[in-house]
Specification:
Blueprint (H helix, E strand, L loop, with lengths): L2 E3 L1 H8 L6 H13 L4 E3 L1 H12 L11 H14 L1 E2 L6 H11 L6 H14 L3 E3 L13 E3 L1 H6 L2
Parallel strand pairs: 1-2, 1-4, 2-3, 4-5
Helix pairs in contact: 1-2, 1-3, 3-4, 5-6
Amino acid sequence: MDYLADTNILLRFVNVNDPEHPLVADVVKGPLQRGESLQYTQQNRRAFWNVCTRPANRNGLGYSIEAALLRLAEADAVFSRLPDLAAAGPMWDRLVKQYRVQGTAVHDAQLVATMLAHGINRILTLNIADFARYSEVAAVHPQAENSAK
């Protein structure tokens, strides 16, 4: 079974200075060794770029364009990008209505809709609570995945 990687996983994977980098880097190996794939979406890519290139004093990493491109290439070497599918649109519509999604949580609803459109039901994330409302998917924290090895 495949996983979708949340943006926080992608960011910790490429940022060796992050305290959670060792955990995430170790956990990423598990699914790959089991023949599973780690996916991400164009939405993750945009959010990744946003954090990488945003100044550090504004909760970003402050990377130059060149450094951000290198980090993105590192992520691309391990994680596979899912294509956007038209089927995710109606799924998103259903999710936001069914789960009464408001505010910035609409971005997580889009990730879930994309997962469902691609037949993926697990997301590797540091923010389990962001996905707890969705009965269609399982949010897996790296510590839980690590202990399952």
